[in-house]
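User: Modeling request: complex.
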Amino acid sequence: MTTEELKAREGVVYDPTQDCKLVGAARALGGVKDAVTIVHGRPGCHCGVLLLRALGSNQNDIRIVSSGLRAQDMVYGAEGRLTESIRLSYNNFKPALIAVLNCSAPAIMGDDVEGVVHIMKDEIAAEIFSLSTGGYEGPAWLGYEETLAELTRFMVRSETDKEKDKDRINLIGFKQDDFKAYSDFLEIQRMLNGQEIAVNTVLTNSRFAELKNAPDASLNVVLGGDGLESAKIMQEKFDTPYVVAPYPFGLDNSIEFLDCVTKGLNKETDHDFISAEKEKIKERVERIFLFLQGIYDTSVAVVGDGGRAFDFARFLSDELGLYVKVLAVTSRNHVSGDKTKCDYVGSLLMEPDRLEMNEEIRKKGVEMIFGSSMEKKLAYELGAPLVRIFYPIIDEVSVSDAPYAGFRGVPQLTEKVVNAIINNYTEM
Amino acid sequence: MMHEGTNGEAGFLRPLINAYSSLPLHGITAIPGKVSGALMVAEAIVDAVPLIHGPIGCSFQRKINPFRPYMPFYETPCTDMNDLEVVYGGEDKLRVGIKETFEKYHPNLILVITTCASDLIGDDFKVVIEKTKAKGDVGCEVVYTTGDFTDKSKPVGYQDALYAITDQMLCNGVESERTDKNDGSVNIITFPIHGAGLKTEEMASMLNEMGIEINKVCFDHTAVKDLQELSKAELNITDFPMAWAKRMKEKMGVDYFSTVQLEEYQNSEDAELLSPYGIEGSVRVFKEIAKRMGKEGEAEEVIEQRKKHMTERLYKARKGVEGKKVAYNGMGGLHSLELMLLQDMGMKASVIIYNTRGLERLLSESAIQEVLNISVAWAREYGSDPEVLVNPTAAEEIKAMKRTGTDLAVLSSLTNPVHEYNKEGIRTFNPMDFMLHHQRVGFECAIELAMLLKEALNKPKTRNPLLCMLEYDPYRTSMIPQWAKLADMFAIIREGAIGDRCEI
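Assistant: Request completed. Predicted assembly structure:
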């Protein structure tokens, strides 16, 4: 089967499935473990970003500060407030990096944010930079790309022997606030270690000093295409090659992920490791094979970001045998356009309007949805189980070490899918 | 809109709401923007649709509802404003957007919510809407809210949106004399921004017995048609002072009454006017409504009879609660619960904890003192001589509770280290849960409170809460140090913001 249609939204009115530049930038910065993000904007922008972070599973790691822009500052400017906020952020958190995200209001007002940053650089012992993240400037994925690109400015190749860094890679496009991010990272690291490959730096899930050392790696691995721009800059600047690898959802994507990495490093893949992992998965699948036979061909919709949704849909279709009737890509990235010919989904929607997307999913007769918390109402209306995979997830937490990614993620995801179907109460 | 059962038997709903209630957000570490408040209004009107005139972030990010994080705003269409509109203006997009919104959603009301971007570039919302309507492109009402109509009354977006609806739709071109009147009737308007304040059955039945008809109860599956019929009533009863009610009085002659009598308190300094709950609070509310409706005579008897009956029931219900020593936060009537503990439950205040951190940003110095004075005066009036702790540490709180032989700490984990009290063998009662799910005007509420307190006094002890493993800020005792820093910083950063601080 080939993809039936590629639908994009029409008209002016848009109920978006994606956020603005501010959130993309804040997500990227959230993964710099010793950075503070200052939201230079009206209270709503700060509150929104703070909520997104706090309602995920990182309630002990909130480094998002407001510049305190007040109503009266809309007339006279808020450069003084921003200065104070930078100072307070430094004094309270002693961060290695302070990033100022300049939102719509001060951007239109014309606050000299660069000037403030420049002056404060002399006063405090942290790196500071600002990014223009006015909501009108574009979607979240662009904010994410621009932030990672900005971070490359601070990178320096250390003067150590390059040879010893062979088989060290950087992971790019990893989002620390994605659901299961912590356990997914542990699993990805374990898989790489199984191939005797070490992780040098994660963009972003590293301290600032580690980020600066990113050029010490011999390969950049771009997960699902997110952060491609930064990989290109690093190739140009530091001669670090890159590969775009799938997000390792499921068995095939995990193997392909490892193949991509080993190939990029000119290294043989250790197939014994993979065979052993396959054996473990087989044993788990065997334990519930009757249910897996039972749910075969269930019609599902996948609603998620371009960096991961294609790979997730492929896992559902190729490995669990589910029928992905609709794949709605909520936000694209630089490689999403290359994936639109995928043959594992029925109907493909790119950055759809939410109302139109919901209608399409309804029309197709979907029995299960894989998405974010934003699909809860639709799932309820359809009477279909919702499995939360994609950002934002504000109504499910994850603190256990049970990944969705990699080989160990296969049984986790499989049990999640089966349980989501058979857990339901019904009366006949 | 979700409803809880009248006895709070809401299944999963109560724990769901409670799960999000400890988030230290509103005025502590952040302030929700006007868009969120306006979206609360749009969502409460079943046949209304918001149209956010701004970029996608103002739509997508605001789907996360800071007032009810468990319940996102699922429908938030926007005009997808981009840099072109910021330079050349967004009026064309707004015009087309209104038309498209009508065609796609078929609402009876489009609530245009402006954003920083559209406000700053100077789009003329009024003219765009008037022209679009005049052209006949939309077959529904269109109203716009900017956050500037109500002089920073809080919550700004919510107050402003309701005012906009009243001013631009309900009172627009309608002469008060021409409105059909539903004589002798009132509207009960509760807008449960934080809780489940829709429990108006008892109030409605009381008013009926008093010979007062109910014209509308809002917001309860409220449609545009219901709003249009609000002006048929003689009186709008709101739960706190509302700018839209004043506007309706000015334009349509419909009087208003706020159950929290803030304005009257400012004149009389009678703190009980801030407390519309419990037996006496409810009596005062019912009497005041009767007076406004000219029903004092017949209402008096009804109120007294009901009061007598319910007081008898309450006295039975509060056995085992009466005389118990209770520790609570000094709120000076801001949430009424402490008055109910003293007045209705007959409990004794043993410790009053008063945390001023964070209040400095919201209240003037004299108002902070006034709040504490009210709390202490109430305690003394009802025969208690409590220990007063101002900004204590958790250890100081526990020590005082033990020293005074406190039976129950009526304190919430949003503000206090409840887990630490439990570990030390002190039983707790969650005032937040009560305020969210039970507190309302009427007599039943006091009886419910008595039963809940009795349950709390006898419930099994929690001996070793996992929460005790964490390190907390010594003064913001329910927060880990990082959140405490965020709260401290927020208080400094917002200092002097117009509209943030108020006098009582």
